[in-house]
Each structure stands twice: as structure tokens, then as C-alpha cells.
Amino acid sequence: MPVHPAAAGAADRRLFGHSYGGAVISNAAVGVSNVKALVYIAAFAPDTGESLQQLVTINPGTHLTPDALDARPYPLQGGGTGTDLYIKAKDFRDAFAGDLPRKTTNLMQAEQRPFSVAAFSEPSGEPAWKTIPSWYLIATTPSRRRPNGLWPTEPARSSAT
Predict the structure, then answer these.
(1) What is the pLDDT of residue 96?
(2) Which of 9, 89, 105, 129 is the most exposed place for a label (fewest CB within 10 A)?
């Protein structure tokens, strides 16, 4: 995964990730010598070979199931077809932001950015948290995405502070 030019400069960098952004920083920072810290904020921190799909469904009660997602194909550069996923309107509030007013979540659902099937299902490479100091903020309020409110395995195994 290529690193954004802003992270590749000479200055020391700290990368922050929330939700699936944790998977992004876990992979993007591998081998980037000026990334000195990773900070996970209620984020996924996949280990080698794990997909976000696996981590989303690790606890029972998730609302991000195949039935809650709309799949929409799009053309890939150079040919072929990719697939974007959107959370369906009827499931969005419960799956993503159940503590917000319906008017707000209706707007969020209409404006949501998709995530690709590839990003959701492809296995992670060797994660940077194995070699770069990491910190993890755990959300303790119950979450619709994680019914027990915790992201139980990621902080412990990544030796995050």
C-alpha cells in the first residue's frame, strides 16, 4: 500500500486511525522509517492474514451483515470491475450511529462514502504495530458495531499502550 506523500517526508510522523482506518495505518506504515507511532482510536488492528470482515463479525450482534449492505459495481482502472459497499438506509442507524438523532443519521446515510469489497475482505499484510510503538483508545460506551462496546483483541495483541 503506498504511503501518502505527506507521511513520506523527512520529519517524524505519527499515524492515527479510527474504525477501518486502523487497518489502513497498520499496513501503510510497514517499512516507513519516519513513522514513529501508531494511534488507534476505537479502530481495527488486524494481524497478518485477517480481514476486516473477520474482525467486524468476531463478536455476535454486529449489524454490518451482508443483508445490511448494498453492493454496487464500478469500473476498475485498467479494466475489470470492483464492488463498493454501502450500508442500507433501513440498517444505517442501528449499524453505525444508533445514539444520534434519526434526522442526523438519515443525512449521514445519504452522504456515506462507500467501502470496497476488496478493502473489507482482503487479508492484511504483516502489520506495522508489530514493530512500531502503538497506542489504543478503547471506546467503553456500548456500540452497535461492537455490542459489548470494546474492540477486545486488537489492543491486547498489538501490545498497545
Answers:
(1) 77
(2) 9
Instruction: Report how far residue 161's alpha carbon sits from residue 158's, in angstroms, rounded to the nearest whole number.
Output: 9
Residues sharing a CB contact under 8 Å with residue 115, sequence separation 6 or more, in sequence order: 20, 84, 85
- pLDDT score at 144: 46
Residue span of the structural domain in which 89 resides: 67-122
- Backbone torsion region of residue 42, taken as left when φ is above 0, otherwise alpha when ψ lies between -120 and 50, otherwise beta: left
Q: Which residue has the cell 469489497?
A: 117
Contact 155, 38 (CB under 8 A): no
**Hey, what's the cell of 49?**
492474514
Do both 18 and 39 map to the same domain? yes
Among candidates 91, 74, 92, 70, which has minimal Cα distance to 83? 74
Are 74 and 114 in a shared domain?
A: yes
Residues 143 and 108 in one domain: no
Task: Order the strands of the 81-87 sheet from edge to edge.
Answer: 69-75, 81-87, 115-116
Taking 70 as the pLDDT cut, the residues of the chain under it are: 1-10, 59-61, 140-161
Cα–chain-centroid distance for residue 92? Answer: 16
